[in-house]
């Protein structure tokens, strides 16, 4: 039985492939493939210490990065989606929502919280891409609208952290109405002269880009984030031309005037604080 005999000599496993340490102790950067300790990676605000790749993180991690001592009051945490259209794709929409809730421990694609950032009071709404692609349905729109209400009521600045594939197709027209609703609320925030900062993270596309993500008094982004409305393939086919290099990257979008600045996540908390202090 020749296949029981090891014919090749000198088979060696690269260090990073060896499974000696328990899972979760090490982090491998998906961009440069280098290894670092999970603890170090977390201390680095979930960015790679070698190539500065910004890991895609959710609301839990952003709240931890931004709120002092990770202390905040979560707003409307139990709001969940209905099924206004009785939508069925490969499975009924309520089943999909329930399965996603179990898998992610989240209730929908955005979480909103109220707390302090370097002693400055702030309301933060942060999207979770893990929840059906960070899609914007009625719950996302409603929670953002209520978070803005909270900002207006308590006269504290509002920070929106977007990461989304766009509208939630299972709610079709109801999703699109969230664009108008959130935009109207932001207009009220503006009338109340309360600052709104929009942070666009990787990726921010579709109806989210076309509404609240681009309506900030400051629109800012993380390095290398993909920002756009339609995907590059659709645009290429529509205009019948090749797209320029780096198209839809945060750097490209900044150069073309849609962003105010790009901020490294490690500096995010301090930069936001000094910006808000400047606006007071
Ligand atoms: Zn890296």
TrEMBL record:
HAMAP family: AcetylCoA_CT_beta. The keyword rRNA-binding does not apply. It is found in: Cytoplasm. Zn(2+) binds at residues 29, 32, 48, 51. It is an enzyme of class 2 (transferase). Residues 25-280 form the CoA carboxyltransferase N-terminal domain. InterPro entries: AcCoA_carboxyl_beta, Acetyl_CoA_COase_Trfase_b_su, ClpP/crotonase-like_dom_sf, COA_CT_N. Belongs to the AccD/PCCB family. A zinc finger (C4-type) spans 29-51. Binds 1 zinc ion per subunit. The keyword Metal-binding applies. It catalyses: N(6)-carboxybiotinyl-L-lysyl-[protein] + acetyl-CoA = N(6)-biotinyl-L-lysyl-[protein] + malonyl-CoA. Keywords: ATP-binding, Cytoplasm, Fatty acid biosynthesis, Fatty acid metabolism, Ligase, Lipid biosynthesis, Lipid metabolism, Metal-binding, Nucleotide-binding, Transferase, Zinc, Zinc-finger. GO terms for molecular function: acetyl-CoA carboxylase activity; ATP binding; carboxyl- or carbamoyltransferase activity; zinc ion binding. The gene is accD. This is Acetyl-coenzyme A carboxylase carboxyl transferase subunit beta. Its EC number is 2.1.3.15. One of its GO terms (cellular component) is acetyl-CoA carboxylase complex. Gene3D superfamilies: 2-enoyl-CoA Hydratase, Chain A, domain 1. GO terms for biological process: fatty acid biosynthetic process; malonyl-CoA biosynthetic process. Acetyl-CoA carboxylase is a heterohexamer composed of biotin carboxyl carrier protein (AccB), biotin carboxylase (AccC) and two subunits each of ACCase subunit alpha (AccA) and ACCase subunit beta (AccD).
């Amino acid at each position: 039985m020749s296949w029981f005999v090891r014919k090749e000599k000198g088979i060696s496993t690269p260090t990073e492939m060896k499974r000696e340490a328990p899972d979760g102790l090490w982090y491998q950067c998906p961009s440069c493939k280098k290894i670092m300790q999970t603890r170090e990676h977390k201390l680095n605000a979930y960015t790679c210490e070698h190539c500065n790749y910004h890991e895609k993180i959710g609301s839990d991690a952003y709240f931890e990065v931004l709120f002092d001592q990770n202390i905040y009051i979560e707003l409307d945490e139990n709001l969940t989606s209905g099924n206004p259209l009785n939508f069925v794709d490969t499975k009924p929409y309520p089943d999909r929502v329930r399965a996603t809730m179990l898998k992610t421990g989240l209730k929908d694609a955005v979480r909103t919280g109220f707390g302090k950032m370097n002693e400055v009071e702030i309301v933060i709404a942060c999207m979770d891409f893990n929840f059906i692609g960070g899609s914007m349905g009625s719950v996302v729109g409603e929670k953002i609208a209520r978070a803005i209400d909270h900002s207006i009521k308590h006269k504290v600045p509002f920070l929106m952290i977007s990461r989304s594939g766009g509208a939630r197709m299972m709610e079709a027209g109801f999703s699109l109405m969230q664009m108008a609703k959130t935009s109207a609320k932001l207009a009220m925030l503006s009338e109340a002269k309360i600052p709104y900062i929009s942070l666009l993270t990787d990726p921010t596309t579709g109806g989210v880009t076309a509404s609240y993500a681009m309506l900030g008094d400051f629109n800012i982004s993380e390095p290398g984030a993909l920002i756009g409305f339609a995907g590059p393939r659709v645009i290429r086919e529509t205009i019948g031309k090749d797209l320029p290099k780096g198209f839809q990257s945060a750097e490209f979008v900044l150069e073309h005037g849609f962003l105010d600045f790009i901020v490294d996540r490690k500096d995010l908390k301090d930069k936001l604080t000094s910006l808000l202090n400047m606006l007071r």
